[in-house]
Amino acid sequence: MEKSARPRTALNECVKVVVRCRPLSEKEKNEGYEEVKKKRTEQTWYERLSTKTPVDKKACDVRLQVVKVWPERGAVQVYSPKGQDKMFTYDAAYDCTADTQTMYDEMVRPLVASVLDGFNGCVFAYGQTGTGKTHTMEGTADHEGIIPRAFRHIWAHIENSASPDVTHLVSCSYIELYLEDVRDLLSKDCKKLTIRGQELNGFYIPEMTSVVCKSAAEMVRVMRAGNRNRAAGRTDMNEHSSRSHAVFLVTVETAHRKTNRIRVGKLNLVDLAGSERQRKTGASAERLREASRINQALSSLGNVISALAENSPHVPYRDSKLTRILQDSLGGNSKTIMIANIGPASYNYDETITTLRYAHRAKAIKNKPVRNEDPKDAKLREYQAEIERLRALISQRRPVDRRPRRPARRAPAPADTSEEETVSIENENILAESTIEQEKKQMEELEQQIRALEERLVQGGGGKDLINNLNEAQLILEQRNSEITERKKREVEMQQKIELEEETTAIVTNTFATLQQEVDHKTQRLKKCLARYGGLREEMVEQREAHDAERRELEALQAALIAELRRRLLVADSFVPLAGRPAVLRARYNDDTDAWELRDHAGVEPLSTRPGAAGRRRGSSARPARRRAENVLDLTPIPLPATTRLYSAPRLAPSLAPALAPAGRKEEVEAVASVATVAVAGRKSARARPSTAHHRLGTAGVR
Ligand SMILES: Nc1ncnc2c1ncn2[C@@H]1O[C@H](COP(=O)(O)OP(=O)(O)OP(=O)(O)O)[C@@H](O)[C@H]1O
């Protein structure tokens, strides 16, 4: 991501939130069917939704679904196991029958059109693992996702640019956030990148690879190449689960020759990794580590969404790299669409409710999109300046080039010239010839450079030939489609407004003929308030339960991670030589440079020196310096089975003892035995001490 110019004046625009519910998967059907059979006697939602035969597989499939989508109202209803159904409304809602094409036309198309007009745009898919985020963003061979559709849209627009005075430059980058490392998916070895900048001026990634593309097909190839490098794996919830958050960035620069202005639109297409419960995904070892990082980043994203929705003065963007990358998209200079993916299965009720709540909160986020005109970092401007410079260079050298390539015939030296002069004239001729050759080569090189730069730029076609006519027709059709979808969207909004205002209008227009009527009306309102209060209480209890479940999950995760850490420490204790240990302990993780660093205490402050007292001299003390304790290696000894026994003096017959033991020998034996006992006691007490170094290293290991 490159540093973009800060907005000047901006109109607030809310984040658009879309919900997409995928169909029930075969696995959910089978597992749910088994569960229904098990639970048929319990009073749960299965019973509430049940027909008469709970083991009938078809009826069971219907009853397994706790989500009902109302596309015409943009609403999602979730049947609650405790009685009170939940209803959420969004900018749009799509059920399992809706395809990506409809979704793109209705919601994403206007956003991509804004990007082509110089705005920043972001589409990000959020939701539990296996709910269809990758399916929605990338799609499959049969169902094209939003990303390739956006590519085609961009290129249809470029090919149809009416005027050849318009020049375009399209480039893409692809990065992923894997285990808190930002990796460049388009570089050969997926090099790690650093996020630079600050919260106030925005974050950016300066070194990521940017590939200039000249067609939608080329962009798809770039995306596939990046996908091959992306971290993916199998979990119990998803056969091909994304183990990283991926961001595909498209930059479209458009230069208008007449106005001499450049507009730069940036489109972030984000496929987040899904939140997951260890219990459900069956994650272990590496998957567990990934899951903990995924959940950590998503939790930071949730905190940012909550802070923005509540207009909190502090938004914790710095908490994770994901939120730093998405800073502009959430509350910044961007038009943003959040796609909340959910599954319909009762099995995932809690996760679905959590996703819907987050999505509902995100609706309140206000962004400040501004058209990016003539930003300093526009590559097109750079290319144009370079082309101009090269052209100027060529025209400066032209007179040299116009000289005859080689003299047609070397003029013979006049008869009276000496032999020496003849040689020097010939040498001059040879020198001139080689200079001309060199100049020629340089000119060719310069022209080649110009051609290479110009090839990167795409000139507006003018739409005169057959293909362009077809494209034009397509564009008109798309425009009509978008008009229709715009109208549909307005209808949904109207419907939502009508429903919301119905209640208040009824109250306002109600005239109370009698006192009894007023009492009835107020009783009715009170009942409604009580019902709402009940609903809120229920929600609170549910949230507490969800929080408890999450806490338990995190505790389990922590226990697993600590176990893993102990294993690694054991390996380190056994194999890292003693000399290297202090260095390992001094290593600190630096968030800014994104790397582990060894504090050079020789250069900064020797460990042996005591920290200075503020303003006054410290009295001398026998206690060791404070700093020293930070670098002490305090390891818990590994309890190993004893392979030796303590020495105990052999029992001797009392009559033989004085004869065999020389004077003083007995005391010596007793002293050795007592030292050994003290050593064992010391070892035991060391075992009982808390392992502070482990804890310290533990934090480091988790980082
Ligand atoms: N709308 C849909 N219609 C049909 N199948 C779908 C739909 N959405 C998702 N699926 C299927 O569900 C499965 C999981 O989808 P996908 O991999 O996109 O989930 P995800 O949310 O990206 O998961 P993760 O977070 O683990 O990467 C896939 O087999 C996909 O084909």
TrEMBL record:
<feature type="compositionally biased region" description="Basic residues">
    <location>
        <begin position="684"/>
        <end position="697"/>
    </location>
</feature>
<dbReference type="GO" id="GO:0005874">
    <property type="term" value="C:microtubule"/>
</dbReference>
<keyword id="KW-0175">Coiled coil</keyword>
<dbReference type="GO" id="GO:0007018">
    <property type="term" value="P:microtubule-based movement"/>
</dbReference>
<feature type="coiled-coil region">
    <location>
        <begin position="429"/>
        <end position="487"/>
    </location>
</feature>
<dbReference type="GO" id="GO:0005524">
    <property type="term" value="F:ATP binding"/>
</dbReference>
<keyword id="KW-0547">Nucleotide-binding</keyword>
<dbReference type="GO" id="GO:0008017">
    <property type="term" value="F:microtubule binding"/>
</dbReference>
<comment type="similarity">
    <text>Belongs to the TRAFAC class myosin-kinesin ATPase superfamily. Kinesin family.</text>
</comment>
<feature type="compositionally biased region" description="Basic residues">
    <location>
        <begin position="615"/>
        <end position="626"/>
    </location>
</feature>
<dbReference type="InterPro" id="IPR001752">
    <property type="entry name" value="Kinesin_motor_dom"/>
</dbReference>
<feature type="region of interest" description="Disordered">
    <location>
        <begin position="682"/>
        <end position="703"/>
    </location>
</feature>
<keyword id="KW-0067">ATP-binding</keyword>
<feature type="domain" description="Kinesin motor">
    <location>
        <begin position="14"/>
        <end position="365"/>
    </location>
</feature>
<dbReference type="InterPro" id="IPR027640">
    <property type="entry name" value="Kinesin-like_fam"/>
</dbReference>
<keyword id="KW-0206">Cytoskeleton</keyword>
<dbReference type="InterPro" id="IPR019821">
    <property type="entry name" value="Kinesin_motor_CS"/>
</dbReference>
<dbReference type="GO" id="GO:0003777">
    <property type="term" value="F:microtubule motor activity"/>
</dbReference>
<feature type="region of interest" description="Disordered">
    <location>
        <begin position="398"/>
        <end position="429"/>
    </location>
</feature>
<dbReference type="InterPro" id="IPR027417">
    <property type="entry name" value="P-loop_NTPase"/>
</dbReference>
<keyword id="KW-0963">Cytoplasm</keyword>
<dbReference type="GO" id="GO:0007052">
    <property type="term" value="P:mitotic spindle organization"/>
</dbReference>
<dbReference type="InterPro" id="IPR036961">
    <property type="entry name" value="Kinesin_motor_dom_sf"/>
</dbReference>
<dbReference type="GO" id="GO:0051231">
    <property type="term" value="P:spindle elongation"/>
</dbReference>
<keyword id="KW-0493">Microtubule</keyword>
<protein>
    <recommendedName>
        <fullName>Kinesin-like protein</fullName>
    </recommendedName>
</protein>
<feature type="binding site">
    <location>
        <begin position="127"/>
        <end position="134"/>
    </location>
    <ligand>
        <name>ATP</name>
    </ligand>
</feature>
<dbReference type="GO" id="GO:0005875">
    <property type="term" value="C:microtubule associated complex"/>
</dbReference>
<keyword id="KW-0505">Motor protein</keyword>
<dbReference type="Pfam" id="PF00225">
    <property type="entry name" value="Kinesin"/>
</dbReference>
<feature type="region of interest" description="Disordered">
    <location>
        <begin position="601"/>
        <end position="629"/>
    </location>
</feature>
